[in-house]
Amino acid sequence: TMLQRASVSLRRPVAASLSDSILAPISLNCARAISSSSYLSSPPEGYGSRTSVEVAKHRLKDFNSWVSSESLIEDTLKGLDADPEYKVTLKKLKQDGQAKLTLEERKRRARALERVDAPNFDHFVRSKCGGELFNRKPTEIFQLNIGLYCNQACNHCHVESSPKRTAEQMTLETARRCVDLLLSSETITTLDITGGAPELNPVFRFLVEEVRRERPDLEIIDRCNLTVLSEPGQEDLSEFLASHRVAVVASLPCYGEKNVNMQRGRGVFEKSIFGCTKLNAHGYGIDPALPFHLVYNPIGAFLPPEQGALEEQYKEELHREFGIRFNSLFTITNMPIKRFADFLHKRGELASYMELLVNSFNQGAVDGLMCRNTVSVGWDGRLFDCDFNQQLDIGLACPPPSSPTAPSYQHKSVFDVGSLQELEAEPIAVDSHCYGCTAGFGSSCQGATA
Fold it and tell me: What is this structure's pTM?
């Protein structure tokens, strides 16, 4: 069977040309070569060469302190408790609170932008594209972040998920309200469920079952980390997803073992490959009714390569080594927020990364920005323009706070609106991190936008 072949394949080493390559990270000189005033209206010819599709060769120096040496729930917890960087962050969180830490992070990004004389994102986009082009569209994607609990603690995670995030979980009451709101909103075509590891929240299956019964035409997406398919109690997960025709969008930041484990934890690659083969065995990536997409994000301070070319590379490597089949690859730029922002700051790379994002602005990516046709819901029911704003506590139609003690704007929640159509007149809330979605080939939860 396919699963039996997978167990044999997993014992084979990845091709030496992939796993044994040791290269420095991609240089940022390509960004500095472009004047800070010469923003791109479209990617220049050969733009994808800024990052090679041979992503298994991309390596980082002095990266060990940012990677858990263990994997999955018990080992991830041990890794977090032994991580000195995590202990420092936890101490600051207890002393200062999340609001102050988020504000400090925002100020660091602002200072980095001042160094490259970059304008305010909203003003800049409107001056380049016109006001009408940046307005909100009818909501088509209803994205629910149902909790921050996860069996992993990836170093790039913009929501800072881990097994320690047990408190931030969507309740059944909020989940029911989300279903009611979805059913009252005629423009919705997609329910996008994310986390954390959303499958580990009890309301996950409730949401899938309720929405599939009431809206059989709707696309339902599960944003899966693949290793959750091996967790105790989730043995039937792939069967459940297939029986309810849930599309799977799964994180696999490389087709090589070393880079995946470097970014996501020891042993994650093997379980991720097993998860892929398990999904294939249930028809995912083979049956047109069961879409299976993978997600790539860089391991360092550089942009993703061209999506189509990297997809071909992924398909070739994964099929040759493990017999894995999938439909599409989504490339997503790492946002300079939360864990990745801390990573950049500690390495002294935040300013150069912000410079790369600004200088790589692509006007062609603006039309596909996910904040224009998506409403994001937090685990507590609050409404946001996107999952990134959600983690920065920038509510829908709410400007970023100017200080931890400044009066907070009233966040709208799913309990405050009767239909998502009511939100179409609301302005889109933006900040400096938004340059990440317009850089290069563009970035969204559905991959490249240009």
Answer: 0.77
